[in-house]
């Protein structure tokens, strides 16, 4: 128990040198409960010098009855013998010293306990304040971390949205460009097909005219044939040239269609 060692040391300090030599000896020793003094005419005998015998009177309940300061208890019993009065007076003095010493010791112990209690209360208050401060710092730190994580997540979501928007825009642009290229290729193919058809029809008509002319020249006589041989030779050369031109245009159209088909496959 706190203060036990202090109380024991204080009590030992007061009792080692005897109660007569206590540091409170200069204080009036008759301010509490005491026994009546014997008459001055009777000598103080040596009851304690010769040993306390059976004739020595011990204090009773009436001896320690509460009285005011410097007020003596009236004697109700017959006057004791000188030996008994002297023994009772010495015992009262000793009891008063013990009571005073114990009272001071109790007061000092209570004061120490109050100081210890106040110190404990101060330490507890300081601990509560430190606890509240640490908790506030912890809450502020966690709030800052939560805000940082929230901002990072929001920034990441914005980046993902921007990337998705950009990819979608590029995809739309690519689709529009591919569609335009496909339409242009189809248009070129259609134009080439129409040109090829026109050229083929043109050469077909020329070839029919040439064949009709040859069949017409075979009907006259040999003289006429001999006379018309240079013209026939010219028509033959013209037919051969027309056939070569037709083949050239046909090959050109086939190459154009092949290239258009490859472009269509690459676009799809």
Automatic annotation (TrEMBL):
<feature type="compositionally biased region" description="Basic and acidic residues">
    <location>
        <begin position="167"/>
        <end position="185"/>
    </location>
</feature>
<protein>
    <submittedName>
        <fullName>TrmY protein</fullName>
    </submittedName>
</protein>
<feature type="region of interest" description="Disordered">
    <location>
        <begin position="164"/>
        <end position="185"/>
    </location>
</feature>
<feature type="region of interest" description="Disordered">
    <location>
        <begin position="26"/>
        <end position="47"/>
    </location>
</feature>
<feature type="compositionally biased region" description="Basic and acidic residues">
    <location>
        <begin position="241"/>
        <end position="251"/>
    </location>
</feature>
<feature type="region of interest" description="Disordered">
    <location>
        <begin position="238"/>
        <end position="268"/>
    </location>
</feature>
């Amino acid at each position: 128990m706190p203060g036990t060692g202090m109380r024991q040391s204080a009590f030992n300090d007061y009792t080692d040198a005897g109660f007569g030599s206590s540091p409170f000896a200069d204080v009036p020793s008759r301010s509490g409960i005491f026994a009546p003094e014997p008459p001055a005419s009777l000598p103080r005998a040596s009851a304690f010098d010769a040993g306390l015998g059976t004739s020595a009177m011990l204090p009773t309940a009436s001896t320690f009855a509460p009285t005011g300061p410097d007020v003596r208890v009236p004697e109700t019993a017959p006057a004791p013998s000188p030996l008994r009065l002297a023994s009772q007076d010495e015992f009262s003095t000793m009891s008063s010293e013990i009571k005073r010493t114990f009272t001071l010791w109790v007061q000092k112990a209570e004061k120490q306990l109050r100081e210890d209690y106040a110190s404990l209360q101060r330490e507890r208050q300081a601990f509560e304040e430190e606890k509240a401060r640490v908790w506030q710092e912890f809450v502020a730190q966690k709030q800052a971390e939560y805000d940082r994580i929230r901002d990072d997540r929001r920034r990441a979501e914005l980046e993902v949205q921007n990337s998705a928007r950009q990819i979608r825009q590029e995809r739309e642009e690519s689709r529009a460009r591919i569609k335009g290229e496909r339409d242009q290729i189809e248009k070129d193919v259609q134009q080439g097909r129409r040109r090829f058809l026109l050229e083929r029809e043109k050469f077909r008509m020329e070839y029919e005219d040439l064949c009709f002319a040859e069949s017409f020249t075979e009907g006259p006589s040999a003289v006429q044939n001999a006379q018309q041989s240079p013209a026939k030779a010219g028509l033959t050369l013209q037919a051969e040239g027309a056939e070569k031109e037709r083949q050239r245009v046909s090959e050109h159209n086939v190459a154009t269609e092949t290239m258009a088909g490859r472009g269509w496959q690459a676009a799809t």
